[in-house]
Amino acid sequence: MRRAIDPQMKMNAVDISQIKFDLHSRDEIPKLLMGLQYIYCNMELKEKVFKILEDIIPEGTDHNNGRPGMELWKILVLGTIRLNCNWDFDKLQEIANNHKTLRQMLGHGGIWDDDYTYALQTLKDNISLLTPEVLDRINKLVVESGHKLLVNKKDDNIRGRCDSFVVETDVHYPTDINLLFDAIRKIITLIAVVCQTLNITLWRQSRHSLRELKRLFRKAQTLKHSTSKDEDKKSEREQLIKTAYQAYIDMVSTYLTRVKDTIKSLRAKKLGKEESFIEIEEFIIHAERQIDQIQRRVMNGEVIPHSEKVFSIFEEHTEWISKGKAGVPQELGVKVCILEDQYGFILHHQVMEKQTDEQVAVPMVVSTKEKFPKLSVCSFDKGFYTPANLTELTEILKKVVLCKKGKLSLERAEFESSEEFIRYRHQHSAVESAINALENHSLDRCPDHGIEGFKRYISLAVLGRNIQILGSLIQKKNLNNQKIIDGLRARKEAEKICRAG
């Protein structure tokens, strides 16, 4: 049984609509909570959001029976605040259990549940129920609500800015020998756990085995190629390196053979869980690939093609990205493309798996146009340009701000020199501010696992950012209203003093 929110308020609890905030606060928490409060208090928006959140409930769940799970509203609040404030789950647990205003937003504060606390695993399990599709649908509603608040805008046309950036995955710098050590470490650890569970002593010395492997790994890792001009010394060092690498992969191969024999024996006796064996065999595939690449590179002097390389055995979606930025030769992660409007809302985003900028330019605009038909102008960096992209985008949008690569024709040069084109091109740099804000609010590095976890993390960050912008608009509006009220009150007091005088 899982509900969007408990309709029955706790005794002495503060209604979410009555939560008070410091309008002068510059921190992101009040802004995000004000945005969430607006969603909760706008009945039409609230019903739509709650309806979408119900899609994360597994099919076949009985809504009237069973143990109650975490309310959907709490999952949304905790998920967005974790990303918006760039917290890990430990920090989220601490704040959720002790931050007064946040607990009021979660519906706590009454006599009966004032001391209610959230367990760490409870937070992880429930926030992971959110899906990118659900979050993107909620994000569309948030952006539409933000547009409705901007009543002073001169026109309702949406002008977009599109750019991409790299979100790093939580991995170490990859080399073939440390990836091999990662694989064999997991293999030995997992098979030792299986044997220990079955009271089998085959792998009782697993820790000693790992220490021996690490010793050989460190020896191979620390040997450097000689820079001497003496060819004999160079040759001697090369042979020393090959010997160290060979000793390392020989020991790894020995352990791989032992593990395979253990799995074969346990399967024959029908002991252990098949899921555990499958997981171990996946790491064995990684280990054998790395052994092959080490032998080809070190022993045979081959250059391993980039397409054959893997940059993490845990986060296999990790890519090696070189964008040519000064001081940043490469980044390990996945590129993300965003399209922002003139008000700062992120209309659409896309995780670019094995894709380049020019491949996503048209899909980004098409998807955004489906959500927001009033999109009429969009600007891009030169990296998004291809002749086909320019042609297709011109058919979709009223104006495309995309600089052409190479030599320009007289007609194109005149178009790109026009005052309107230059104005939009200068405004395009504002998208870097949105990217910087996203990176400051958690999108510098993704700690969540797997490509699905990565996509959920990106969607939560984008939603959290848009709710914060919505809350910032509400904060400014309330602050202006408060100034007007204070001014009227001061004027009345002055008039009263004048009459008395």
Keywords:
501 residues; Nucleotidyltransferase, domain 5; 17 helices; 7 strands
> How many discrete domains?
3
Helix content: 55-70%
How many H/I helical runs? 17
- N- to C-terminal distance: 69 Å
SS-derived structural category: alpha/beta
Radius of gyration: 29 Å
Oligomer designation: single chain
Report on the biggest sheet.
7 strands, mixed
DSSP, total strands: 7
General shape: globular
What fraction strand? 5-15%
Overall mean pLDDT: 90
Give a written overview of the molecule.
- With 501 residues, this protein is of the alpha/beta class.
- The chain is built from 17 helices and seven strands.
- It folds into three domains: 164 residues, no CATH class; 150 residues, Nucleotidyltransferase, domain 5; 133 residues.
- Strands 1, 2, 3, 4, 5, 6 and 7 form a seven-stranded mixed β-sheet that branches.
- The N and C termini lie far apart (69 Å).
- 32% of the residues are buried.
Write a short abstract of this structure:
It is built from 17 helices and 7 strands. The chain is an alpha/beta fold. It has 3 domains: 16-146 and 455-487, no CATH class; 155-169 and 317-451, Nucleotidyltransferase, domain 5, CATH 3.30.420; 176-308.
